[in-house]
Amino acid sequence: GKELYDLIIGPLAAELEGARAKTIMFYLDGPLRYIPMGALHDGDKFLVESYATALFVDTAKDKLLENPDFSPKVMGFGVTKDHPGFPALFAVREELDSIIGSGGAARGAMTGASFYDENFTREKFYENLRTGASVVHVASHFKFENAPGQSFLLLGDGKPLTVSAIKRGLSLGGLDLLTLSACDTASGISGGNGSEVESLGDATMKKGAMSVLATLWPVNDVSTASLMADFYTLRYGDSMDKAQALRRAQLNLMKNIGSPAGASPRGSSVAAFGNIENPVDDPWTGEGFGHPYYWAPFIIMGNWK
User: CA geometry: angle at 145 spanning 217 and 197, to 5°?
Assistant: First the structure.
């Protein structure tokens, strides 16, 4: 992290400070696209402690000047049950409940509707998206395949929604933010050159989404629920831009809110911190979510305002 900071940020550090910059948008290529820029380290602190970060992608360049929507219609979709090759996600319902309150519910950063498991089929997903939601939150698994178009998001009925199917049949015009709170939604395949990192996020922006919040590696179930609830409260409760709301939510995790005990990684990959049966604490502090494994994989692509 320090070596990369010195190469990428070091030559510009004085200019960034002089300009009083708050957000850095990176246009990355090759292996750098696998690395969360917020986790670069100057020897004293992480980059996210000084700046919000976002990724520029060609498919969203015409959306960067669009104005944000702070009064959105929001929908959530989640997978809570286990399916062959995919473990149950026990914190998904808690995650969506903390984000979306229905009707007069006291909980939730916003009012909207959530759909789980058998109510999260391809047909129901497409049908609900056509009602004009401007924020959509999906909490599930994502499986990367060697043929990029066959990579897929796991639907609530256990069936795959492939990237190819999204490109063919899904319209996301008017969508301000698509959050893919899933395993590996932005990351690539072994031996890739980095171009596949945009994957599902890139496909959805081609279909009209202005911005996508995705992940770079298998995320922790419990810490993700905490970060997402925080992000939406900061974004829509405190009217922060998306990049700054994400930065603040990441910093809150870094301060060790909560505990990883009993947490499970999303997706089929085993996290570096134990496994589903035997998770271990953060090796840096012995507790909480301070290690970059928990807070660093989340990236915002496209319109970060």
Answer: 45
- Amino acid identity of residue 137, one-letter, is H
- For tokens 């009993």, the residue is 262
pTM of the prediction? 0.85
DSSP letters of 117-171?
A: GGG--HHHHHHHHTT--SEEEEEE-EE--SSGGG-EEEPTTS-EEEHHHHHHH--
Instruction: Give the Cβ contact number of residue 206 at 10 Å.
Output: 17
Q: Tell me which H or E stretch contains 229.
A: helix 221-232
Residue with tokens 């910093």: 251
Average pLDDT per consecutive 10 residues, the chain (305 residues; last block may be shorter): 97 97 93 92 96 91 81 90 89 86 61 93 90 90 75 93 85 87 62 61 84 86 84 90 96 69 41 39 58 91 93
What tokens does 84 get?
A: 């062959």
